[in-house]
Amino acid sequence: MSQVVKCSLCGEKAIAIIPYARLKLCKKHLMEYVERKVERALKRYKLVNKGWHVLVAVSGGKDSSTLLRILSKLSKKYMFKLTALYIDLGIRVYSDKSKQAVVKLVEQTSTPLIVVNVKEALGYSVPELAWKTRRPVCSVCGVVKRYILNATAIELRTHTIALGHNLDDLIAYVLKEFINQNLGQIGKLGPKTETIDGLAIGRIRPLYEVYERESLLYVLASKTPFLPDECPHVRRDSLEFVLKEQLNKLEEKFPGIKMSLARRLALNIDKYPQLQQELSKCKACGLIASGQLCSLCKLTKQALGEPMGPKLRVYIREKINELFGKQDN
Ligand code: AMP
Ligand code: ZN
Ligand code: ZN
Question: Is there an atom of ligand 1 within 6 Å of 205 CB?
């Protein structure tokens, strides 16, 4: 006869087993457990201050949906304000479905939403830009997303950008950068990065201590809208992907090893080389660059014959004005 597994805290039916914490949790206690982890990260790593305006990047996936739902709960207690940003990359059905999930979620959490549509702003979607430049879709996507996140935060004058990276994502990136000996990149993978005045807004990662599995359980338990589908361009043979699989095997043998790496990394993050001294201002759009032009202006100059940073910034400003009325910029 099969026995029902019971919650370690209340004896109700458990829906999750958390091996490294030796806990079995029911729906309610699983939700509280993940919410407490995010709250603890906000305090432990000093991620937000009272009165801050936080731009939350939501893709419609499980992680950033967990992020928005929990930040929205915590924003009252810690007195910060949220605006959500969704970037429509133009990856056909996938982008349409993820946008629908985001729209539902912002309705439920009463969060203002800015939608930046890449095709509308630049005339070309991300896959079309990739085709024009003969670059991999994921590399073009990274450049476009990073630019839009930063430009929106600058135009909106938010204090920080919240990203949905979970613990598994971060550890896999760290190991990848370690294998490639890009130590300067590791320094950017802690719980937060600082703002560089006028050029780049800092980022926070409130899911720094949340395992990927926990964020999936959270969206399911809390009935948070999200899109379970993977982006059609994700490559299962990439180094990050394989590292994640191997790290899960390691975690099975040594429960908690990922968490302990993340915590130690956070303590050591300042010991990694800082890349800021090489940074300058893009000659076309004025945002952060490592040479004459920023990555987006370089990419669009190559693809379309013109650096599109300035136009994209105007498009974003108009979207903000539509949502909040004219700002005194
Ligand atoms: P990725 O770059 O896909 O690993 O995603 C990292 C984080 O960037 C996510 O957790 C989100 O916070 C944000 N993000 C990714 N895609 C989008 C998108 N289409 N719109 C807004 N934010 C996004
Ligand atoms: Zn319980
Ligand atoms: Zn530029």
Answer: no
